[in-house]
Write a structure and sequence with these properties.
6-stranded parallel β-sheet, 10 helices, 11 strands, binds nicotinamide-adenine-dinucleotide
Length: 293
């Protein structure tokens, strides 16, 4: 059996279309244009590329993009003042601060300073609590995208055995909460977990968010399982060149022989993350404008 490849690029393009439609309805019916502010501190090349992609896609769906580029030596106080200003700006409905931040700035302080209703990354303690209590809030983009791909693929997830590998605050933990909300029986594995291979063999759904190339082997996969690979790892091409290729946390070539469906790296989860950020911004805009009582 060869697994179906889950096309994250196509799913993300569909989601962006739905976001663009909501944006044009907001503009036509309520004269409101959703606005997203993206703040980058420092000049990390990967973060610059990522922020540029976010800004481009924000504009492509018809939203306003407010970019703030700050020097690497920016103090925590200066960043917090900018966030406070954006919190009060009625044209800005979503605020994101690109992580990681330079070491003089505590990311917890920054995340908590963003107004919870504009926290489109879903990292604010109030949004974390809402997710854990099963209440409405803004959900972190990567796990939200993974859940959409799983539901597109499987439909109802009720009763399925789901294994989340990784327990980070931005992927693993919220992923586990979302799967629980979909009535899965969830196991969370991490760096101290014993017998990961056996836990994997029992899982109908595996979400791998670790950062170790090809950690999950083909013979760990339950036949027909659905595999979501969040990992993005740069590995040498081993062809004598100095160029790299991207691989996930799951050994794709092996796993594809056993699984029912699998996301590729690249082209799987990655494209969904920014599309979900745009969806969160539209949702945040609606709550701050037309749905406010
Ligand atoms: P992280 O470093 O914060 O967390 C990694 C987790 O893996 C930890 O909880 C750790 O306990 C666990 N772990 C480490 N070694 C393990 C092992 N041997 N067995 C089982 N668990 C182990 O990383 P993160 O921010 O959650 O990101 C994980 C991966 O996902 C990275 O490759 C990152 O680049 C990628 N990522 C992709 C997207 C996307 O949009 N596609 C978004 C975020 C992160």
């Amino acid at each position: 059996m060869t697994a179906k490849t889950i096309d994250g690029k196509a799913a993300a393009a569909e989601l962006r279309k739905r976001v663009a439609k909501q944006v044009s309805e907001l503009r036509a019916n309520y004269d409101v244009q959703p606005g997203l502010a993206a703040i980058l501190v420092g000049d990390d090349p990967a973060s610059q590329v990522y922020i540029r992609n976010k800004e481009r896609q924000t504009e492509e769906v018809g939203m306003a993009s407010v970019g703030r580029r700050l020097p690497a030596e920016t103090s925590e106080g200066a960043l917090l003042s900018i966030i406070e200003e954006l919190n009060h700006d009625p044209t800005v409905h979503g605020i994101l601060v690109q992580l990681p931040l330079p070491k003089q700035i505590k990311s917890e302080a920054v995340i908590s300073a963003i107004s919870a209703e504009k926290d489109v990354d879903g990292f604010h303690p109030m949004n974390v609590a809402a997710l854990s209590n099963g209440k409405d809030g803004l959900v972190p983009c990567t796990p939200m995208g993974c859940t959409m791909l799983l539901k597109d693929q499987i439909g109802d997830l009720t009763g399925m055995e789901a294994l989340v590998i990784g327990r980070s605050n931005i992927v693993g933990k919220p992923m586990a909460q979302l799967l629980l909300a979909e009535n899965c029986t969830v196991t969370i594995a991490h760096s101290r977990t014993r017998d990961l291979d056996q836990k994997c063999r029992n899982a109908d759904i595996v979400v791998a968010a670790v950062g170790i190339p090809k950690l999950v082997k083909g013979d760990w996969i339950k036949p027909g399982a659905t595999l979501i690979d969040v990992g993005i790892n740069r590995v040498s091409k081993n062809d004598g060149s100095t160029t790299y290729r991207l691989v996930g946390d799951i050994d794709y070539e092996e796993a594809v022989q056993a699984a029912g469906a699998i996301t590729p790296v690249p082209g799987g989860v990655g494209p969904m993350t920014i599309a979900c950020l745009l969806q969160n911004t539209v949702a945040a805009c609606k709550r701050q404008t037309i749905l406010r009582d």
